[in-house]
Amino acid sequence: MSTPSPVTPLDSRAVTAREFRDVIGRFATGVTVITTEHDGVRYGSTASAVSSLTDDPPMLLVCLNRNSATAAAVRDSGAFAVNVLAEDHVDLATRFASRVPDKYEGVPTEAASNGSPLLVGAIAHLICRVAEQVEAGTHYVFLAHVEEAMSYPGHPLAYFRGRFGRMETAPEASVLREVRARVLDAGSDVEEVIDTARWAEEFGIDAGRVHRALVALADEGLIRRQSGEYLITPVPDSIIDEVYKAKLAIETGVAELTVGHTTSEQLVRLRELMEDTLGFVKDGRFTDPEGWVRANERFHEYMVELAGSAILLDTYRRLCLPGLNLRALDTASYASSSLLDDHRRLVEGYEAGDLTQVLAVLLQHAQRPLEMRREDRLRRTADANPVG
Ligand SMILES: Cc1cc2nc3c(=O)[nH]c(=O)nc-3n(C[C@H](O)[C@H](O)[C@H](O)COP(=O)(O)O)c2cc1C
């Protein structure tokens, strides 16, 4: 008996060209210009279908449409250069993807050792000699030896779903921790434009690393980005009110779709996540505000996940509730044990398939943050003005 092919598709549904383009467009790439010279004429084409092939010997491959003038010139000359574009090279990428008569007009170049033009300002140049060319449908695949490779400082241009963009390097965990702690220490009623250069100096690191951490914190909702600046903003009651209304709308919608339609495994998981939240409130305080925020996030997000809609989950995440809560809460904040009772009653409602109970609890639960804030203020005022 023959072994089944390991590449037997699970789902062999035909994929249209349009579907394929849409899906493969999610594979983000850098952007290059493939340049060559043949019979005294310079050619160049923007290309993202470039891949490293082997490092010993150094080889790469480039896929060029057979209609492309550059493809014909590479085929005939047997040589080309890969110019890796920098993030501010959208104009070059567009120019070399067009059919303008002279793509090189006004573009500074130098000649590579194999005669191909090198675009000045690219962040890398790879000088290549074609080893093999394969015809694949509408395209040639050129397999090439890399004869020389040069790199320069700079950040790459990115291409994702048909649009140009920038690649962000993930911030280092240690820098992110420090910058986040600094933002949280600011308290919830402070308004401050973050002075990146000063923070960098104080942390003893370069400003780029602080900047990458700020980008991540803005995505999380801990700080705001406005006209190129990063701001620590107060968290007024009005924002909490607005965000919690949106949260309630999503959660009640999800409850209507899911209560009574969950599997027993989902209910077990929901209960586990609810129980994980229980240890964080004690004697009217959060024992560990960040721990609470994270456990609470996992529990609530799981409820939303039950609806089975990635779009809904994404919308919910855009409310940036964890960031908002981290800014609003600290170890001195008043924490009501009703939060935990709500969580218990929510899960009981889900387990009983009781939509009315779940909706009622969600409504009360959405009012807790403002109730707790009011109580918190009263307690702080009373502590500051003790009677007697
Ligand atoms: C971001 C981007 C990536 C591209 N990638 C490729 C590619 O990998 N292969 C290709 O044949 N064409 C690609 N193109 C299209 C060519 O750049 C375009 O057809 C160009 O006009 C060809 O020029 P030529 O005929 O002068 O060689 C890309 C275009 C853009 C904007």
From TrEMBL:
Keywords: DNA-binding, Oxidoreductase, Transcription, Transcription regulation
Organism superkingdom: Bacteria
Limits of the Flavin reductase like domain: 24-166
Molecular functions (GO terms): DNA binding; FMN binding; riboflavin reductase (NADPH) activity
Keyword hit for Glycoprotein: no
Gene3D superfamilies from the UniProt entry: Electron Transport, Fmn-binding Protein, Chain A, GntR ligand-binding domain-like
One GO BP: pyrimidine nucleobase catabolic process
Signal peptide: none
Boundaries of every GntR C-terminal domain copy: 242-368
PANTHER family to which the protein is assigned, alphabetical: FLAVIN REDUCTASE (PTHR30466), FMN REDUCTASE (NADH) RUTF (PTHR30466:SF1)
The protein's name in its UniProt record: Flavin reductase
Organism: Streptomyces fuscichromogenes
